[in-house]
Specification:
binds zinc ion, globular, alpha/beta, six-stranded mixed β-sheet, Rossmann fold, 35% helix
């Protein structure tokens, strides 16, 4: 499909290799000419990973490691007498939803003949990018906080990526990665417009087979959340869904800049992360304002859970034979918090919870 890369703030059309607007430094968006796509892509036997949707993605060829097509498992919540579908993203190649976005970014880097890929990460995205880069023969440098999860750093190292340690948190790593990419002319991967396109495929897969009234998911940088919303809007445009579900963003009490901004109706302010959910320990979400717009557009909500609630959710998931790291279990912790406060409104509602990842050995 025809597409352009446009600034979300000033509307300037940027080049396909840009990661922020060259005029105003704001984040960018992939804008499609939807009229150039005649029909929604059907599944074929040749499909690998998320390749079915290539006509809705900003790439000409996909370098896939069979990401996507993750299972949906249904469980009955006996206490509330409600069925919940879990979308289990831990079945991706590096055990998190990040692989969908990495497939798009690495494919784009190869299309642009990039010699090297650079990425800032709390761990999971760095591992995913390192795996795809290694498999498809592109050099890779990951910027990561010295305080990041050691299990995840070891796995990135094992994927043969160069690791640059950063003092400070994820947002410090992000600043250094952007500066390095600019200076070295490397292709910058991360929570930018191309990754968001990969994340929207979760919405495609869910709503291709089912309809939901509520979808719960964790929020770190907001790329999954805003990408999911974009996928829904596209499906509605092509008349595959009639109405949008309420989408609910959940953050950890120890790092909840988006929830605070949403509840108090103010702009997002940086918060120093302090949570066991390291995968969503992002003090300033890049797609924060877009995510708040998505919450409002779907009459959704934003809420927080404590580290204790996250551990309880991990254990409750394990009872269902679903294993998640703390950040990966946050969506379910949020669902349990939400239903306890709004049980009466859930009668006959269809609910989906996204289990985003399981990429560490967690010890309490
Ligand atoms: Zn701009």
């Amino acid at each position: 499909m025809d597409y352009h890369i446009v600034c979300t703030k000033c509307g300037y059309e940027n080049g396909i290799g840009s990661f922020r607007c060259i005029k105003c430094k704001s984040i960018l968006e992939v804008e499609y000419n939807y009229n150039s796509l005649e029909e929604w892509p059907r599944r074929t036997k040749k499909d690998v990973g998320i390749s079915r949707y290539i006509s809705l993605l900003p790439i000409t060829k996909i370098f896939s490691l069979k990401e996507g097509n993750t299972p949906i498992r249904c469980y009955l919540d006996r206490k509330h007498n409600i069925k919940i579908d879990f979308k289990i993203e831990t079945h991706n190649p590096t055990r998190t939803f990040k692989d969908r976005g990495s497939a798009i970014e690495v494919s784009k880097a190869i299309e642009l003949n990039a010699k090297k890929i650079v990425c800032a990460s709390t761990g999971n995205m760095g591992l995913s990018i390192a795996r795809y880069s290694k498999r498809f023969g592109v050099g890779c440098t990951i910027f990561i906080s010295r305080n990041a999860n050691k299990d995840k750093i070891n796995k990135i190292f094992a994927e043969n990526a160069e690791i640059r340690y950063v003092n400070g948190d994820f947002n410090s790593a992000l600043r250094e990665a952007e500066a390095y990419a600019k200076k070295s002319g490397s292709f910058l991967c991360g929570d930018y417009h191309y990754r968001k396109e990969g994340q929207k495929t979760i919405a495609y897969e869910l709503f291709d087979k089912n309809t939901y009234d509520y979808v719960f998911m964790p929020l770190g940088n907001g790329t999954l959340f805003s990408g999911f919303y974009k996928g829904l809007v596209e499906m509605k445009r092509f008349k595959l869904i009639k109405r949008l579900p309420k989408i609910i963003a959940i953050q950890s009490e120890g790092c909840m800049p988006l929830v605070n901004a949403y509840i108090h109706n103010k702009s997002i302010a940086y918060e120093k992360p302090n949570t066991i959910a390291d995968a969503i320990a992002v003090g300033y979400p890049t797609f924060g304002m877009e995510s708040i717009s998505a919450i409002k557009a779907t009459h959704g909500d934003a809420l927080f859970v404590s580290d204790k609630q996250i551990v309880d959710a991990m254990q409750a998931l394990a009872d269902k034979n679903i294993y998640a790291e703390p950040g990966g279990a946050v969506g379910y912790a949020g669902f349990l918090e939400y239903i306890n406060k709004n049980a009466g409104t859930f009668k006959k509602k269809r609910v989906c919870v996204i289990i985003t990842g399981n990429n560490e050995s967690y010890k309490s």
